[in-house]
Design brief:
By secondary structure, this protein is α/β, with parallel strands linked by helices. It folds into three domains: 124 residues, Histone-lysine N methyltransferase , C-terminal domain-like (Helicase, Ruva Protein, domain 3); 251 residues, Beta Complex (Beta-clip-like); 40 residues, no CATH class. Helices cover 33% and strands 13% of the residues. It contains 13 helices and 17 strands. The strands form five sheets. Strands 3, 4, 11, 12 and 13 form a five-stranded mixed β-sheet that branches. Strands 1-2-8-9 form a four-stranded mixed β-sheet, covered by helices on one side. A hairpin with a 6-residue loop joins strand 8 and strand 9. The longest helix has 39 residues. The two termini are 45 Å apart. The structure holds S-adenosylmethionine. Pfam families: SET, WIYLD. Keywords: Chromatin regulator, Chromosome, Metal-binding, Nucleus, Transferase, Zinc. It is found in: Chromosome; Nucleus.
């Protein structure tokens, strides 16, 4: 662990490499630290991008001031003799004058006070999350006027895409430097678009569905409260705020080997508009958090998702052709809650109509809320719900797909209503994740499904088990075996229940000896 002095020294070493003197670095650094609640992680981010940007912004302003001064001098002298005018230009253009100018800038810096945090923030925040054309010009102009060094450095485009609506700031950076900033409105909570009907009311929460007599932290009580009943009498979370391993592993297994779990089949499926033939909806495991009628407090260990994002995250432009993605800026242990998928709550009909109207959107952002359709009678199109983060959403709208070995899983979470027609989609880490790793989710796309009305994107996930790279006609199972080797006989393949079990093991690289 470095001391503050060592951190400052390190920051100066970096800026000195860019020929920035310490007397310029230090006051800016001080202001940035004040502004960010002494958060060194943000300062160090992407090799001190925020710091370097703030220093350059200061330079830009000074250059601007210099230009104005020069202009004024020129104007004044043009009112006098023309010799005076050329003299001013010559002095500023000679090598000697450049050195003089540098010196005078240095001294003016020492005398000059650094911008207030608010101004620095404004400079650094070159655009708001909802971009307009003028801010886009700003980004382009920046790259045109940059010198060689500046072109290479990372450009932080948005300091906080959440616009202060989350308890952590989430920056957006573009290391490639050529991408348009995404256009969407950041919302930290789901919101009904128009027709969706959410059965949320206090009257629906019966005594059995809450823990009115609890106090403080339910996880510290001697016995699990009513809210743990949903998860077999044990809370889904540990005291450290992570999803319990056993619960998490069952959820993972459910995703990877769905055919070994119960499914609900609609008679006429709202998702299969054309032929209506239902492919089955998994009856998922839910987490149930304490809520309004419960007696515990907000810091109760059984309230994790509802407290919102706590991890340090960043949106960045991926190099592999996936567009924008999300990475973690800190190590995350297995079972950490990362974010919820937030968007507009639409009925299936509304989504369908929206999709018909939409012009060629490169990326898509809807997720169906079908984790417990089995608990209701057949749902109609105008009842079935989904979340669409295309226009309004949170950071989760940037989560990219990865085949088979993604590091996040979505788990349905019941919070304000026992009725699972509406619920929250929360993302947790499946394994330990290292700082700067991209956070990914397996969208479970079948890349070879030609009957699907929406053509899947060309997958660039980079996974060894990429299903898009799987040769056409190969079953997923044989593709995995091809990858890991093994002499599985046809009978093995046919033993379908076990097959799913084996698929799960193969995907987790736990291939039993006899199969290798
Ligand atoms: C929910 S968005 C994810 C954020 C998106 N990358 C962006 O720039 O806004 C889903 C879209 O991202 C792109 N995408 C996600 N994962 C991908 C992958 N593995 N390969 C290629 N494109 C991917 C696809 O265009 C997809 O429709």
């Amino acid at each position: 662990m470095l001391t503050d002095d060592e951190r400052v020294r390190k920051a100066c070493e970096i800026t000195r490499e860019l020929k920035i003197p310490d007397e310029k670095t230090l006051p800016v650094l001080k202001k940035l630290l004040q502004e960010n609640g002494e958060n060194w992680n943000l300062i160090k981010l992407d090799n001190y991008t925020a710091l370097i940007d703030a220093i350059y912004s200061l330079d830009e302003e000074e250059e601007e001031e210099d230009k104005k001064k020069k202009k004024k001098q020129t104007e004044t002298s043009s009112n006098g003799s023309s010799r005076g005018k050329s003299h001013v230009i010559n002095v500023f253009d000679s090598p000697h004058s450049a050195a003089l100018k540098k010196q005078s800038q240095g001294s003016s810096n020492r005398g000059k006070s650094v911008d207030s945090p608010a101004t620095l923030k404004r400079k650094y925040e070159t655009r708001s999350a909802k971009s307009g054309s003028s801010s886009e010009e700003g980004v382009q102009k920046q790259s045109q006027t940059s010198d060689g060094v500046r072109k290479k450095r990372y450009k932080a485009i948005i300091r906080d895409i959440t616009k202060g609506s989350e308890s952590v700031e989430i920056s957006l950076v573009d290391e490639v430097g050529s991408e348009q900033v995404p256009k969407f409105t950041y919302i930290p909570h789901n919101i009904v678009y128009q027709n969706a009907y959410l059965h949320v009311s206090l009257a629906r929460i019966s005594d059995d569905d809450c823990c009115a007599s609890c106090n403080g932290d339910c996880l510290s009580a001697d016995f699990p409260c009513a809210c743990a009943r949903e998860t077999s009498g044990e809370y889904a979370y540990t005291k450290e705020g992570l999803v319990r391993e056993e619960f998490l592993d069952t959820c993972i297994k459910m995703k990877k080997a769905p055919d070994t779990f119960s499914k609900f089949y609609c008679q006429v499926c709202p998702l299969e508009r054309d032929n209506g033939k239902c492919e089955g909806h998994l009856i998922r495991k839910f987490i149930k958090e304490c809520w309004r009628k419960c007696g515990c407090d907000m810091m109760c260990g059984n309230r994790v998702v509802q407290r919102g994002i706590r991890c340090q995250l960043q949106v960045y432009f991926t190099q592999e052709g996936k567009g924008w993605g999300i990475r973690t800026l800190q190590d995350l242990p297995k079972g950490t809650f990362v974010f919820e998928y937030i968007g507009e709550i639409l009925t299936n009909t509304e989504l369908y109509e929206r999709n018909i109207r939409s012009t060629s959107e490169r990326h898509t952002y809807p997720v169906t809320l079908d984790a417990d359709w089995g608990s209701e009678k057949d749902l109609k199109d105008e009842e079935a719900l989904c979340l669409d983060a295309t226009i309004c959403g949170n950071v989760a709208r940037f989560v990219n797909h990865r085949c088979e070995d993604a590091n996040l899983i979505d788990i349905p979470v019941q919070i304000e209503t026992p009725d699972r027609h509406y619920y929250h989609i929360a993302f947790f880490t499946i394994r330990d994740v290292k700082a700067m790793d991209e956070l990914t989710w397996d969208y479970l796309i079948d890349f070879h499904d030609e009957s699907h009305p929406v053509k899947a994107f060309k997958c660039c996930c980079g996974s060894e088990l990429c299903r898009d790279k799987m040769p056409k006609g190969k079953t997923e199972f044989s593709w995995l075996i091809m990858h890991y080797g093994g002499d599985i006989c046809q009978q093995d393949l046919e033993a379908s229940r076990e097959k799913e079990e084996r698929l799960f093991l193969l995907k987790n690289k736990q291939v039993p000896k006899r199969w290798q």
